[in-house]
Amino acid sequence: MIRLLAAAALAAAAVTPASAQTIAIVGGTVALGDGSEPIVGGTVVLRNGRIVSAGAGRRVPAGARIIDAAGKWVAPGMIAGFSRLGLAEVDLGADGADDTEANGSPFNAAIDIAPSINPKASTIAVGRADGVTRAIVAPSAGRSIFAGQGAVIDLGDDLDAVMRPRAFQFVELGEGGAGKAGGSRASAFTLFRNALREARDLAGMRPIAGSAGRALPRQGDDIPYVSREDVRLTGLDARRSDDVLLTRFDAAALVPVLRGQQLLLVHVERAVDIRNVLRLRSEFPALRLALVGATEAWMVAPEIARSGTWVIASALNDLPASFEQLAATQSNVGRLRTAGVKVAIGMIGEDDTRRQRNQRQNAGNLVAVSRIPGASGVSWGDAFAMVTSRPAQVMGLDDQIGSLKAGARADVVIWSGDPLENASRPEAVWIDGVAQPLDSHQTKLRDRYRDLTRRDLPEAYRR
Fold first, then answer.
1. 62 & 127 share domain
2. 291 within a domain of the structure (yes/no)
3. Has residue 454 been placed in a domain?
4. Helix/strand/coil for 130
5. Which one is predicted more confidently, 66 or 21?
6. Structural domain of residue 375, as residue ranges?
7. Same domain, yes or no, for 48 and 87?
8. Whether 383 and 258 share a structural domain
9. Which residues belong to any copy of the Amidohydrolase domain (predicted)?
10. How many domains does the chain divide into?
11. Fewer CB within a 10 Å sphere, N or C end of the chain?
């Protein structure tokens, strides 16, 4: 039965344009992706690349093509919460990579990775075949703590992958940032503060009087900066001090971050470093922050919750792999959720280019952890939301992707079973309502060499 639904979906798409199809998937267990528990015997209706309805007792429109999903699961496509999909290939050599980690460019914050995304990268096909339909793609930090501007992409089988370019700025702090800023965390934080001050000077902005002593604001607080006296800011100030470290291009790229117009993703693991990142908002209160990794976040969970900051967590870091992860525990995410922290799952440092399929395994393990006496896990609905709607919420795209709510893009997967179980496999995938192939370079090699005959062998082996 595996892949039969995918083949049928592709065949139908070849006859009728995707934008003209109405598809009703009936009889399956429906996971909405919004944190709710699965619905047995639900219906999902797609039309014109969007979700029309999803849930129990939904009406099937007249003339819709009906797909029987009895015994299967129907769910939104998963979102890779942190990845480098489309930027790197296999590890046979560096030639396949198009990232910023080892670059000799004079720029850092100004780098926009969107032109580097390769929609035909083999890793994208592998992720799509395991039910990943969108990805948050971040550059690696090169010579600076500022890695550049990441993107949100879809994993569709076409050349138009980038959904939102310049979706966020990515910064390395903690141990990784220390190594790029002269060898200490203090120098990394100083470099960060200096960069934002240069952006502030370039934009002609000044802090609100007394802001340094204000309580830490929540995400989305209004008007944290004002323009120069009686001057409405209309552009960047042409005057600039000679005492600068950033190029004008890099400083200009940080202005949207400073104003809270662009999300700032910060990789940090140690509890004290997390506190220091949160305190940066006392000086730069407009910052919209999301913490990435955050192994020791459970130790400062109340502070994170009060700040309204998102965490894109490495779900199951449970060993002291470094000195900034000494307090690692499988209960990190569960404790964060108990404290009211908003959490999505990412995979920074966990082969985040090639093994995005492990993201759903991590989510499933969080459910299993909840059954261990003394441990803290999460419910099934909460865990599944962490790989679907929650990454979308971090990016401000939850009205479009990550769930089966009406009006969202029709990123839909039919699974052979529970998507958080390792044995389950996608049998059909739609992205923007378009049926997708589920083959990859690996499956093609498997099929080619599964049953070798003499005619399949290279010429040298036929003699």
1. no
2. yes
3. no
4. coil
5. 66
6. 78-401
7. no
8. yes
9. 370-433
10. 2
11. C
Say whether both 378 and 395 belong to one domain. Answer: yes
Is 387 found in the same domain as 274?
Answer: yes
Beta-bridge mates of residue 66: 24
Amino acid 380 reads: W
Min mean pLDDT across 21-35, 290-304, 447-461 is at 447-461
CB atoms within 10 A of CB 21: 22
Domain check: are 291 and 156 in the same one? yes
pTM, two decimals, is: 0.85
Q: Which two tokens stand for residue 275?
A: 């506190």
d(CA 413, CA 422): 15
| SS3 assignment, position 287 | coil
Contact 74, 67 (CB under 8 A): no
CATH number of the domain within which 50 lies: 2.30.40.10
Distance in angstroms (rounded) separating the CA atoms of residues 430 and 410? 7
Same domain for 38 and 117: no
Tokens of residue 446, six digits: 């498997």
Q: Render pLDDT for 312-362 as a digit per residue (tens, 0 to 9).
A: 998 878 888 787 888 889 999 999 999 999 999 998 877 666 677 788 899
Q: Could you tell me the two tokens for 400?
A: 């479009």
Q: Which of 36-45, 69-78, 104-113 has the lowest mean pLDDT?
A: 104-113
pLDDT tens digit string along 146-202?
999 999 999 999 999 999 999 999 999 988 888 888 889 999 999 999 999 999 888
Distance between terminal CA atoms of the chain? 39
Distance CA 283, CA 291 (A): 18
**The one-letter amino acid at 208:** I
Euclidean distance between CA atoms 95 and 207, whole angstroms:
45
| Pair (140, 87) in one structural domain | yes
* Structure-block tokens of residue 20: 């003209």
Longest dimension (CA), the chain: 87
DSSP secondary structure letter of residue 435: E
